[in-house]
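Extended Data, panel c. Modelled sequence:
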Amino acid sequence: MNYALDTVCIHGQGQREGIETTGAISFPIYQTAAYAHPGVGQSTGYDYNRVQNPTRKELERIMTDLEHGVDTIAFASGMAAVSAFMELLKPGDHVVATDDLYGGSIRQFRLVNEKNGIRFTYVDTADLTAVEEAIQENTKLIYVETPTNPMMQITDIRAVSDIAKKHHCLLAVDNTFLTPYFQNPLDLGADVVLHSATKYLEGHNDTLGGFLVTSHKEIAERAREIVKTTGAVLAPFDAWLILRGIKTLSVRMEKHQENALAIAGWLQKHPKVKDVYYAGLAQHPGHETAAKQCRGYGGMLTFHVDKEETAYHLLEHIRLIQFAESLGGTESLMTYPCTQTHADVPEEKRRANGIDGTTLRMSVGIENVEDLIRDLEQALT
């Protein structure tokens, strides 16, 4: 039987592993570093926590089902997942990447991967001609965020997948903003999906985690060898927190989206707001593409105010909404990209992508939307 997404969030498509025989409704936390062997040359299937853990394995099962992959590897953070994935490349390889990436990904590429001999070309991946023209003989990967962080650009995943296949390279998609509840990149031709589980998947702003999900067994096997070697695995208690968070993913994502659409519409009418970037708005340039490949538009939006002083005033006067990094939790957060998420991106590059002192990114929570709008109204006065 194939279950609907909201059911899969709670149960997955299949059955739990038989190791859990007590009937516990909440999957137990196996807080152990090692496992005893029944005898010489024998194993229970679990040997050492860096390699296997039942709680983590149950979480990986649920994520594999949600993203329609063949395997999932859970990491200690989203950036640990990105770092391990990039280890699949070798010196001399070339990557075409979205130019409006999360600043932490750009820092990873610049400080670690470039040092290791990997080269990058950044383009607007919504522009298919630009993607095609950026391909080189040694291009091994196209790395996409959609929607992008923070400017909410939308990339046509299926079209970019066609380009990747034509040139015999992989396509990886960061699906953090929409989650598998709203978007399934593997179904659209991607080879790898990456998540910061810290965000919507866990959903409560209280732990870190990351996922690499793939439709290729070979990629999964190589990634598991890397994480076994480097050790950046997700701890059992953190796995349990994320497993618990995913159970309410469907209801939270619907509420995030409902609130975000209402706030985006309100911001459009405010005299101190100049631009609103949210793919759920009909006038967003990526709206039609998003409607075609997604089941929803998520809870993230970005906007420009009239001047830098307005941005400072808003950040210092919001009361219910909190001025903080991160996103995707039940609480609404406001982020100032130029000093927070994208502080490590050179100013010239930030400005080219539309990020300046008037840019604000909002992770819309699940509070009462009228309370959120009243908070914005008083902070913009």
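The longest strand covers residues 139-145. This feature is highlighted in the accompanying rendering.
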